Amino acid sequence: MPYSLLFRMLKDPRTTGALAPSSARLARELANLAKDSENVLELGAGTGAITQALSKVVNQEKLQIVELQKKLAVSLKKQYPNLKIVHSSAHFALDNYRHCGSVAVVSSLPFRSLPPAMKHLTVQSLLAFLKVSPGSQLIQYTYGLRAPFRAPAEFKWRQIKWVFTNFPPACIWVLTKTPDQ
Question: I want to staple 147 with a disulfide (CB 3.0 to 4.6 A). Which of 10, 28, 141, 157 is the partner?
Fold first, then answer.
């Protein structure tokens, strides 16, 4: 998929990346999974449906929002002036994120349609981040029946639940590093 299509997907997910924006129910489910973490990093915030739910259950000092498309990042900054909004790629944000304690990475990234190079960089950054961040997790949803991407044996995907009130129905997955033996 060319990068220009990715940018259009992020700009208008209703016509290119998803059939409809994330539902309030899906956003609440994702936020509830993240709310007990010491920090929350949202990747691919888009128009802010999940950001809104996160902002209701996570202390604003512990929440950072990442959006690749500049216009959407600017819009999010206007909509949520008290939140830290970063205009960046997910892999750059992950590689440069500084925190203390556990982190819930809440992602709306479309792994199945990302350009291969971008997908590879992002997955490698996520795995590296989870390796060095004890107690951290990736909370990701997908519209497919399989995990969002293949993870090495030292990580484990758990299928949490389907949200059928989302259009299309979405499955929530959580990826964690397995405890060292």
Answer: 157
State residue 74's pLDDT score: 98
Contact at 8 Å (CB) between 131 and 163? no
Residues of the chain with pLDDT under 50: 1-6, 8, 12-16, 181
Burial degree of 148 (CB within 10 A; 0-12, 13-18, 19+): buried
Are the beta carbons of 31 and 58 closer than 8 angstroms? yes
pTM here is 0.89
User: Which pLDDT value is given to residue 179?
Assistant: 84
| End-to-end CA gap in the chain | 40
Q: Is residue 54 within 8 Å of residue 46, measured between CB atoms?
A: no
Write the DSSP string, the chain: --HHHHHHHHH-TTTTT-SSPPPHHHHHHHHHHHTTSSEEEEE--TTSHHHHHHHHHS-GGGEEEEESSHHHHHHHHHH-TTSEEEES-HHHHHHH---SS-EEEEE---TTTS-HHHHHHHHHHHHHHHHHSTT-EEEEEESSSS-SS---TTEEEEEEEEETTSSS-EEEEEEEEPPP-
